[in-house]
């Protein structure tokens, strides 16, 4: 039974994984480790698969399976209620299992650096746009900069096709979201979106000092430096007699680029990617 394990640096008592399709009893087209009871799979097969999940991975108890509707509702565990319509789960209690189910949507796992709070969110484009990640982070008692997020497997940036109206919905919240989309070269009027980039943008906005203005300023600085270096490189080639002087200049600005890149990504990006 294969799993995908997060490559994040968290306390050792935090156990997290994503299952794959392998290792269950469901028949095609649900073969074989299908855990969803909403996709017309045989109910007994789903029940068996869920039991296997608990047994094979030594879960402390049978987990809560949400009725996921692309909402922004977060359930806090332990939960004794009957309303399971939600798309994220949070807990600050030991021996709880935060579980979400995804196909092409983005699963996001959270923990604080101390490992005393954890959560899982199902982030399809609707939930992502409406703020399911932000609502999940709101449940944490820890400050946003103390929270680590891991992005699990989801539809990739070369396959997630949307119309202009989807881009406009994301941009209504944050104009920077436009950078996560590009025209689909195979179909006029369609675009390819990057869920990972959008999720990173949304989480970065929660960090102190990472407002869109700050991020734009860093990007503009990088772009201007890169333009200068490109111009210097061309000048070296054209004016070879001045090569030594401009080589020194080129080296200095290359160093500046490295520092600009370090500021942008190392300091502003707080997520652990797949």
- What ranges have pLDDT less than 50 throughout 5 or more consecutive residues? 264-274
Strand content: 15-25%
Q: Portion of residues in helices?
A: 25-40%
Sheet/helix structural class: alpha+beta
Task: Name its key features.
274 residues, alpha+beta, CNF1/YfiH-like putative cysteine hydrolases, six-stranded mixed sheet, three-stranded antiparallel sheet, 11 strands, 15% strand, disordered C terminus
Offer a quick outline of the entry.
With 274 residues, the protein is of the alpha+beta class. It has helices at residues 43-56, 125-130, 132-138, 164-173, 195-204, 212-238, 243-268, and strands at 3-4, 18-19, 74-77, 88-91, 106-112, 118-123, 147-151, 161-163, 181-183, 190-193, 271-272. The strands form 3 sheets. The chain has a 6-stranded mixed sheet with strand order 3-4-6-5-7-11.
Q: Would you write up a description of this structure?
A:
There is one protein chain. The chain is of the alpha+beta class. The chain has two domains: 138 residues, 4-Layer Sandwich (CNF1/YfiH-like putative cysteine hydrolases), CATH 3.60.140; 58 residues. Helices cover 36% and strands 15% of the residues. The longest helix has 27 residues. It is built from seven helices and eleven strands. The strands form three sheets. A six-stranded mixed sheet has the order 3-4-6-5-7-11. Strands 8-10-9 form a three-stranded antiparallel sheet. The C terminus is likely disordered.
């Amino acid at each position: 039974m294969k799993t995908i394990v997060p490559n994040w640096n968290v306390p050792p008592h935090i156990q997290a994984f994503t299952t794959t399709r392998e290792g269950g009893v469901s028949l095609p087209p649900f073969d074989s480790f299908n855990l969803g009871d909403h996709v017309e799979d045989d109910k007994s097969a789903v029940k068996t698969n869920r039991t296997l999940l608990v047994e094979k991975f030594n879960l402390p108890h049978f987990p809560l399976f949400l009725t996921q509707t692309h909402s922004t509702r977060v359930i806090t565990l332990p939960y004794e209620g009957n309303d399971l319509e939600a798309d994220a789960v949070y807990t600050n209690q030991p021996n709880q299992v935060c579980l979400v189910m995804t196909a092409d949507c983005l699963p996001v796992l959270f923990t604080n650096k101390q490992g005393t709070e954890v959560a899982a969110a199902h982030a399809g484009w609707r939930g992502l746009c409406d703020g399911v990640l932000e609502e999940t982070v709101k449940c944490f008692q820890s400050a946003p900069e103390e929270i680590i997020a891991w992005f699990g497997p989801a539809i990739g940036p070369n396959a997630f096709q949307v119309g202009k109206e989807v881009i406009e919905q994301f941009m209504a919240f944050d104009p920077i979201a436009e950078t996560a989309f590009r025209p689909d070269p195979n179909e006029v009027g369609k675009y390819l979106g990057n869920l990972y980039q959008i999720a990173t943008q949304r989480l970065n906005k929660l960090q102190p000092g990472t407002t869109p203005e700050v991020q734009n300023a860093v990007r503009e600085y990088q772009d201007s430096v890169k333009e200068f270096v490109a111009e210097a490189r061309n000048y070296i080639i054209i004016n070879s007699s001045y090569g030594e002087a401009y080589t020194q200049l080129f080296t200095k600005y290359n160093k500046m680029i490295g520092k600009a890149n370090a500021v942008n990504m190392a300091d502003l990006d707080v997520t652990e990617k797949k």
